[in-house]
User: Which sequence fits this backbone?
DNA sequence: TCAGATAGGGATAAGTTTTTCCCCTATTGC
DNA sequence: GCAATAGGGGAAAAACTTATCCCTATCTGA
């Protein structure tokens, strides 16, 4: 397994929530589990762009962070169900709010994101580098 | 500059907000800019763990995503000020809510995160792998 | 007998982000 | 002439995340 070489800061609330939500698919996992899609195979069908492997890894992390629990049924073929913990449930309204903000501004966001992806430094028409071109008032340091 | 090889999904609001907030320091940048720390050097002092380079890169992205604007004063030494756009301001309440959630649960979160970092598979006392050990009831597929 | 469903992990490769180091601008002060 | 200041970017390395491939195991159904 990969071992971190840089220990994260855990000073403020933003650091902390950043740690537990960081990961390409975690928010979606929480969301779908909350919607009642509990079994790993269901989640994998819901999030087909993610590899099976990574979903497992991120589910493990969510479990270690106590946002979800994993229940193993001793049957065969195996059956496993994830559920949100009470703690995990408290984060759902935040995710909902994020999703809603994104939905409300989706046209604008999509535009800006696509524009940014495409024009990764193709254009030269802006003269950012005219710092010293005009005046010479002292900076208000 | 690095060029993406995998184009991101932009289907739902969560995808979109994920794109614009993804980046180790972006949320903090937005937060501090909102608090009135506008100049790059101020921001760098506020976020000493980030390299200067990365803050610039992420500020650029925030600008391209229209969450902040950059005002250049043609003086010397250079003076630059970032401000939130009206659009950028609408995301602040969300960030505040995230930070608050993190603060409210900080002890629990810190515990869980540190535990997870330290016990990256050191312990062998759990028997996860007893899938087929017990019964044989059919799975409720 | 062999594919498929179910759940998961190890090893390695590929992709992406962040850090580090060094360079540039132009002026002021020593 | 040299350092400090303020803002910024290129190149390469390091750190980190995600994808790919292949393996475990048992039972069902074709």
Assistant:
């Amino acid at each position: 397994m990969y071992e971190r070489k840089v220990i994260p800061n855990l000073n403020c609330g933003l650091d902390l929530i950043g740690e537990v939500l960081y990961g390409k698919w975690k928010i979606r996992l929480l969301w779908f589990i909350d919607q009642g899609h509990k079994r790993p195979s269901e989640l994998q069908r819901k999030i087909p762009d993610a590899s099976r492997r990574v979903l497992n890894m991120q589910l493990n992390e969510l479990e270690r962070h106590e946002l979800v629990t994993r229940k193993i049924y001793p049957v065969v073929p195996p059956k496993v169900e994830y559920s949100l913990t009470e703690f995990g449930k408290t984060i759902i309204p935040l995710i909902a709010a994020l999703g809603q903000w994104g939905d409300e501004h989706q046209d604008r966001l999509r535009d800006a994101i696509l524009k940014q992806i495409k024009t990764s430094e193709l254009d030269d028409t802006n003269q950012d580098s005219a710092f010293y071109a005009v005046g010479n008032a002292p900076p208000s340091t």
About this structure: Chain A has one domain: 13-118.
